[in-house]
Amino acid sequence: MSKLEANISLLIITFLSAIHYVFLTAVPESVSHFAFLSITNLVGFLIALAFFFGELFRLDKHQVIQSIYLAAELVAFNLFMLKGGQGTNPSVTSAVVSSYFVFVVIFTAVFQKIIPDKGTVSGVIIVLAGLFLMTDADIDGLINANIFYLLVADAAFAVYVITVGAYAEASNPSILAMGQMFFCFLFSLILWAGDAIFFGASFSLPSNPQFWGSVIYLGFFIRGLFGIVQIYAQRYVSPLNTSLIFSTEIVMTMAVSPLLAPISGMPPEKITVLKIAGSVLIVAGLLITDPVIFRSAGNIFRLKRIRVFFMRLFRAGLDFKIIFISALVYAVIDLPVQLMHVLPVNTGIKNFLPVTLGLFFGPSGVLGCCAGCLLSFVLQGLTVSDIIAECINITVVGIGMWYGWHFLSNSDDINFRNTRDYVRYVSLLFVLSALCLNVKISASYFITGLLISLPLNILFGSLLGIDPVLPDGKQIRNDADFIIDADPATLEKANEILEEAGSSKGAKMKQIMEVQSCIEELSIRIIKNIPEAKINVSVRYGYAVSVKVSCAGKKYNPFRLEAGETVLDIMSLRIIKHRALRASYSHSKGENFIHVVI
Q1: What is the pTM of this model?
Q2: What value does the mean pLDDT take over residues 483-511?
């Protein structure tokens, strides 16, 4: 993940946070705040567990303790924010809570000895001025006893952002995200019980589908997606810049309020001259502090000749496992929102799935979405015409993204390293969404494709190293391919190839040595257990290095330690356990498959 990708991802999850209040309208006032925190964190944890179950072998005591710290900081933030928000003007509350980056500056200067430069100080002051104007310069509103609690909440969240930055560098982000949500669930459950025992709060939850639809969506997008993407992104973005990006939530909320008010049933936020001026200052301060987001704006992509291969559409092959999983996910995401009856048929958050699944898996992802649409619509008793219209939209958007991305670029992977990639993606998404020929449906595909699919595409492509299915005429090009066997000379030759390939791609020597160490250790362990093994290794260098290892023979998982071994004794496995973005093992048709992304 590049710094640009990380910044874009943080901006998008900030926007998701800004619009989440639409779903809060389905939560009755009788439901304890801690009850809602508890149940949404549980849903987020279960969803993350489903995606990252294979990562649990990397769990250790050290990361459990880190997860507890992160969860405690988040719960403390919510506790003091809830206390401070009572009796305080909402706009003042939002502005004060968004100001926690001041504590980030103070804490990093005092405890980490990171002194901000003049540009950073100027940006912070400008953002602060903008936040003050966002309150309509309400000085009286700031003179409130509850402001103290809001400042404590700010301090707690500042510590959380700094802690995430420190932990994300040396620990596995997926484990931290799951652990954070699990312990947030436990801590919130304890506070919910205390709220019920001492303050009379209800210890039951509503049974209506609108409430549970909100729980699923907030658990998935705010707890799950937000937490995972943030921890991954903070490997590349400083705590201060992260907090400044999050401070734009107040601007985004004001901007979309007129559009979302009819859906939520809440009155739109009043937009004043002072608030507009405040928004301008906040964005200006962010740009002064971290201009990388808008750097290289003139680097527009070169449009290549489009080669049409519709007659050979399905020559890429179909993966029925992808079809089945895509169908299941589509139906599970679509059913709750339709039961809420807040959005028209054929619209909703589910529309991000054809964009992402079509882009990565081509026909398999598209067929899976169509199957999920059929299942969802049949269970709802909708008409055949609705099903046909939805499947046509899915096919147009999904196949269009698949072909468009791969034939408008020379790349055989999916990443967002420069402005050209973003322009290509947004342009494709806009054109394909417009082809849906219905304003609401087009808007749904474009918005979800931009706000949900984009960070997921960055996560899958740049971080997890998922190889996309390529259209006919395209093939994945590896930077290094070689075979290792019991002959030590093959390992020596492999190290030479890795160093040469890494140097040509501009990889740092530390990264090259980490890759060499991991491959060497994995190869030694495999050959020790399968002496006749011919180990095929493929390596692709980028911001992260994707290493694929395969060998025929009996089932053997090199990540499992033998009796008397500890992961701390094996340096390369320790790197995989803590530093790797992805480490997976599978066995199929008599062959072992290993994929590590470092």
Answers
A1: 0.63
A2: 88
